[in-house]
Amino acid sequence: MPVVDSPVTRLGADGISRRFGPVVANDGIDLAVRAGEIHAIVGQNGAGKSTLMRIFQGLDQPDAGHVIVDGLPVRFRGPADALAQGIGMVHQEFMLADALTLAENLILGAEPGRRGIIDRRAALDRARQLGDQAGVDLDWGQRAGDASVPDRQIVEILRLLYRGADTLILDEPTAVLAPSQVDRLFGLLRALRQDGHTILFISHKLREVMALADRVTVLRQGRVITTIDVGSIDQDALAQLAVGETVEPPYREAGDGVGDVILDVVGLSVAGTGDRPALDQVSFEVREGEILGIAGVAGNGQEALIASMIGLARPSAGRIVVRGRELGGHSVADHRSFGVGYVSADRAGEGLCRQATLTENAIAGEQRQLAKESKGWLLPGRCRQRAQTIVDRYQVVHGGLGRPVAELSGGNQQRLLIGREIDRSPSLLLIAQPTRGVDLKGIAAIHRELLAYRQRGGAIVMVSEELDELIALSDHILVLCGGRAMGIVDREDASTETLAPLMVGAAAA
Amino acid sequence: MMLDNVLHAAILATTPILLAALGGLINRQAGIVNIGLEAMMLSGALAALIAAHVSGSWAVGLLAAAVAGLVSAAPLSILVTRFGANEIVAGLGLNVLIAGLIGYLLSDFYGVSGTLRLMPVPTLPRIDLPFIAGVPVLGAILSGKDVLTWAAWILVPLTALLLTRTRIGLRLRACGSSPATANSVGLSVPNLRDGATLAAGALAGLGGAALSLGLVGLFSEGLTGGRGFIALAAFYFGRNRPWPTAFACILFGFFDAAQIRLQGGGLPPELVQVLPYAVVILALTLASWRRRRGPSPEP
Amino acid sequence: MSGALPRALEDGLRLAMPFVAALLVGAILLAITGRDPFSTYAELFNEALGGQSRIAATLTAATPLIFTGLATAIAFRAGVFNVGVEGSFYLGGLAAAWVGFAWIGLGGTLQMLAALGFGAFVGGLWMLLPGWLRARMEVDEVVTTLMLNFIAIGIALWLVNGPLLAAGSANSATPMVLPEARLLRLIPPSTLNAGFLIGLAALVAYGVWLRLRVGGFENRLVGLNPRFARSVGISVASVILLAIVLSGVIGGLGGATHALGVVGRFSEGFSPGYGFTGIAVALLGRNRPVGILIGALIFGALTSAGTTVQLFADIPLDLVQVLEGTVMMLAVVEAVRWARRRRAVRAVAP
Asked: Which of A230, A309, A429, C310 has its CA 20 to 30 A from that of C183?
């Protein structure tokens, strides 16, 4: 595809490629963001969005191709270079210094004043003025670490405006916001467009893209699939483009749904930061051969729910009963010995130990049992044998059991992780984001594995941000919002239409 | 008067610790724990003595001390900011390296082992305040103090202002609080941290000069006697804020003076010497206890 | 399989790099001060390894470093930055000396074993506080263990100047330990003693523990990724506490062998910084048994050679300190560059 060489191209990419070892993150990307538009980039996890944004900030350099600014190729060595061209970015994890006040964060790097002394009055005046423009009233003297998430986000946007940026890149800005806060953000972004700002908006939430953007570029596996006016496409078609070949809904035998109760959760609460509990009086039960899906906007209590059920977080109230045994507040080891398995959403940071070998990862958690079988010795041969079993059974493609897990692809890592947990035959499997960052073939394999486990009578509690996945696999779906259970939807009634209102806090019908 | 004597000595004993602690504080605010203060003080102390002796001027001695402290801080800083060295081990290594280097050079150039006496050495002039000197307590506190002591105490509010009211101070604090943020707004974190470490080196070097030119008028390998670590203890205790850190320094200076003067009157001197270190462990424990009593963070 | 040899080679290079760089720094210093670096190093080498008595001196000098290096490594591997081995070494040495001279009537080998055991016990006890603070209260162990060094030295000094001061002695030292408590001299008249063998045995035990015991396995996983360790059911707090206390036990045992094997009592200036050199040894040896042994031998050779070279060739012993400090500063650079490469790999995959 040729570069869209329009005189109004504000920011663009000309054949940008970037590979990391065997992984091609960006593969000849052409992109043209017009001045004054809101341009969305959509794509699944691993489609190459983040890499492209890093390149737009000079945080990473392309192997081939150029960043284009105002029609000309440029080379950014860092965010400062980008900012000098009027291009700023709001990152997913906010870039504010917690120890500094909001006002100090605003002016950092371009402080008003003379001879090195900060003119605090001028700083505050300018801050208030920017706040007024954006229609927000902030406590500028507040430490950033104490400020609310939406306020921090607004300050980041205002900081870019303060620095004179006319082009804003926002990376998944709504992932951390409640629906009303999303509205406020979108209001601000539309107002900015009105003033002539250019906005590049990265998201995988298609509804938001449809609501906000003028044009949208679809990325898939590091390539641009198309760039299209939002007005000329509907959400389903866009979804089709982003996903590519659709995943065959996995074959799923109907369960009889009358097995024994494996997990009984009653009035479970977990303390959060500040006054609001992370989890508030949630009750449900899961039976043998049942998959309970947990739906909700990210950060609405899913993590606290899973963490308390595996013993990583202590419940502040309520009971967690597994096969008749009260487990709330016990250690992780106790939970596991009572038959709870856990597949973390953070595969690289928590689920696996990337520097450790396949063998070490495969037996981790089982080491005491293995040692007990050999008079206290953890024999390398036995460990390898155990690892080999898991690797074979769950078809993990690897370069040697003694190699670090970091060398595996995302999908193989996830198979190793899920295999390790399922192979210990837990009565209850807790699994979060089972297919995050896994390619389509891998997704299908993982879904098959989970369903097979269910068929053998296993109980699963599954958190996922992919509604389609929840709907395809779950027997029931519990919807969380603000730490509270908004309702449990049966499989027959589960659809985006029925779940979405619950996810934003509307009471169940 | 006993009290006056102790006060006077305590304030003089505070000076080297305070100077080094202010340096370490700035360093820590920028995100680096400086374990090499001891080495920087030691090289400052030696440089001050030699330069003052050769030039006949204490001012030149002070300048040399600051430069020597700065130069010894440079390798530490570069290894930490450019090569990702662990600041703790590199700092400990610097202490060993500088102590060795100084010992080597002393025996090579002066043929002495451990202690260097140079005659004559212009020591730091002390400023007697005519009317206040006679006043009990106040006189002991204010009068008869050398220039470095005055400078150190003037630096306390100046450091506070530097950190809160100036561009460089704000940027240093940003480096310490969130290097990624500082980077994202176009600041060079390594450069700023180098600046902070070099400043710490210069201040610690002056602290060393306060020992060799202000207190004793000679140099010995054990001259600093762990004061670099006491300074570390002070800014940990003061949680990197200038006034509380200065308070910790005066407290430790008081221990120092009391231990010499109050012998037989209570604890043995060896145990008085360890008080600053014990106080820091206590302070860290209390801080953690307070933190944990607050709302428990989500796992 | 295929990776085995290059990895060993790589390890060897990593071990050598900071040391070679330090020799360069030392060479520059020697050249500036008008000495010939080559002949100086040749002399150092000769003094370290030339003949049985010199080798014995080197092994003697390496002995405390084996213990402090190992003690440091156990903690480092669990991700605990214990820089307080010096304190354990001091107090362990004092405790052993006390048992050695004061517990009259135990007699025979029992006297020695009691002294060694008590030294190790006190060394471990000393680390209980920072261990507990780190494991349960999340207090940064770097500062607490660093501060505890000074406290330990202060307490030891107080004891040898007061309650435990040898009668009629002006200098700060305990009485000599009973002959039964002394460790066996291996090659008289050199001071090489059974402490070296105890050190080797400790290294072997450590190697076995690492590879074949649950404790070693959990220690490694906690050090690599505590969140992961927690999620698979390992009690991270217990592992950390165990690591730091074990570290103290080994440090204390090192002090005990030094008191009973070399010094014969406890005296002021008992350790010229063995605990800190141990950090360099552990880093240089990448926390592995063989690496620690090599690191300890290198520094032991430098120390023993430096002592005699100072006497005969007018090269200040401080040269050894310069080399040691440089190695410490550069050893971490290497370690971190290696860690960073690992991190880079981690950052790559989506």
From this structure: C310
